[in-house]
Amino acid sequence: MEKLLFEKSRSGRKGYTLPNLEVQISIDEDILPEKFIRKSPAELPEVSENEVARHFLRLSHLNYCIEQGLYPLGSCTMKYNPKINEVTASLSGFRDLHPSTREDFVQGALELMYNLGECLKEISGFTGVTLQPAAGSQGEFTGISMIRAYHEARKDYKRTKILIPDAAHGTNPASAAIAGFEIVELRSNENGRVDLDDLRRKVNDEVAGFMLTNPNTVGIFEKEIKEIEQLVHGCGGLMYMDGANLNALLGIVRPGDLGFDCMHINLHKTFSTPHGGGGPGSGPVCVNDKLIPFLPVPQIVKENDKFRLIYDIETSIGKLHTFFGNFGMFVRAYTYIRMHGAEGLRSISENAIINANYIRALIKDNYKLPYKEFGMHEFVISADYQKEFGVNAKDIAKRLLDYGFHAPTIYFPLIVHECMLIEPTETETKENLEEFANVMNIIAQEAKENPELVRNAPTTTPVKRIDDALAARKLNVKWS
Ligand SMILES: *Cc1c(COP(=O)(O)O)cnc(C)c1O
Q1: Which of 269, 282, 329, 414 to mutate to test the pocket of ligand 1 (most atoms within 8 A of CB)?
Q2: Which SS3 state, helix, strand or coil, does residue 329 take?
Q3: Residues 366-382: pLDDT tens digits?
Q4: CB of 341 within 8 A of CB of 416?
Q5: Half-sphere exposure of 315 (CA within 13 A, CB side)
Q6: pTM score of the predicted model
Q7: How far apart are CA 465 and CA 402, in angstroms?
Q8: Same domain for 55 and 90?
Q9: Which of 139, 379, 444, 456 could form a disulfide bond with 133, CB atoms 3.0-4.6 angstroms apart?
Q10: Residue 311 contacts residue 297 (beta carbons within 8 Å)
């Protein structure tokens, strides 16, 4: 490595530059026309390390993160990613592996993937697994494609429909449509569950499957799951579980035991891998015996304590992702599962449920609860009471920012008017939950006494109210 020199840079300003840094790149002019090739070096600001560090630290302070406070976003679960995950994922034996390395040299990595798959099967109550899908939504597509392959293998070609409740996450109908199915929407009843009468009307021999989230998107357990399962299987359809809310069931209920045929698991929601911009995501899919023949390749098998990859499975739906999926996420999720063990995982779900219901109880006098029943790991409220003061769910969400909290998910699910979906997760203390509930109650008071204040929020953030529609339609992420 060459020594760093302090010298005058090309632009005449002083700064650190690396000598001989000009990399020779041969550019094929067929690919990049001459007119696009830079004639002189890019004019990047040249400042000291200290200034760079301050710049980025300042920027980071404009942001909100889990290290700062609660993230009550519903339908998202994990926002806290244990630091130990980063330690294991950075072990050079994992981090520096090339995915093309031959099998005998990556036995450790294959073992980890195999073991993670075994853990997920045990937790969910299924017999087969693929770790490949890169997100829950891709897992949905994988599962629905396997359901399609299942019917086709039986020469049952008339099954063109997938049943999906109106409360479902938007990815459910999207995945089913991409897999070539027609979507049939099911109504939810006044208790926030699947309307069984509507289901009875819609099951027939054209139904390929039913996609259900349990607990569902309003945070309520679908306790009539046995009736649902009998109706769907009774008509020859298969049961797909959207496992985004598995955080409420760990060690308590196994979806495989409820009669589902397959499910996806969002590692970034239930098993502590990073979410959103911190990704990439990971959405393994577990299946029962009916769907094992159709699992994506490669499959990892264990033979005499050696791990092998199998590619030639004729009935497989094929490959979903380059190589094996997002391997770094497998290391993190496996770390989390092994750190907690069976007992620990169960207490995660129990605490997630208690925490959500604690907040619900603390704010129930000030917000409308659309459903009487206790929720699971998340719950919905409606800002309907605040409507008479001209305050809506978005205003309340914005006002929370002024108090230093991240906002919950709003306007999802669509079936609840002025919906706010609140999910505190298991990683918050009683004091944090109380503080959040307290602020929610203060905002309800403000909405009554000084609605203008809430409508104009946020006032303390670096960016005030923005025009969401304009921001979404004319997204400008370029610095000029
Ligand atoms: C998050 C979520 C999905 C989609 O998962 P991604 O990993 O974001 O693709 C599907 N269904 C529900 C209920 C979800 O909350």
Answers
A1: 269
A2: helix
A3: 999 999 999 999 999 99
A4: no
A5: 15
A6: 0.89
A7: 12
A8: no
A9: 139
A10: yes
